[in-house]
Amino acid sequence: MSGTDVRDEDWYGDDLSGQEHTGVAFSGVDLSETTDDGAVFTDCVFRDCRFTSSQHTDAAFLNCTFTGCSFAQATFTDCKLVGSSFDRCRFDMVTVEGGDWSFVVLRGADLSRARLTGARMREADLTGVTAAGATLRHLDLSGAQLAGADLSEADLRGSDLSALDPRTVELAGAQVDGGQAVVLVTALGLRVG
Question: pLDDT under 50 in the chain at which residues?
């Protein structure tokens, strides 16, 4: 499907595997409990859509815009969301395993109940995200923007924190490994030994 509008449709539980959509505007579409293996969405816009409990595997959402969407309990496994942006979306209990989320914009998102592991998030805009208590393990956050982020009590073990300035991020109670501790101490300008 290319360059068309899809409004207020009920795709609840549909299998979207292998579908390709380019430049489509989805508005008020219920994608709850959909499954897809290898679907590709390019330059699409999603407004007020529900992805509740949906399962995405090897899917691609490239340069897509999501506004006011719900991803509660959605799972993304080895998906590409390169260049996509999210505004006023809900991520309660979302699970991301692997994949490439580089250059995504999640500015101000509430990820506190999210579980992200093993994903590439290079140069992602995570400015002001609330991820207190979240699982953010083994993420490639090189070049990511994290100013004003709340990562308190988050599990950050194995993630690349080289772009993180600990003076501009809330880190109280966050769990890090030894290598990350050295990176953070160095970023603070401290010398060990």
Answer: none
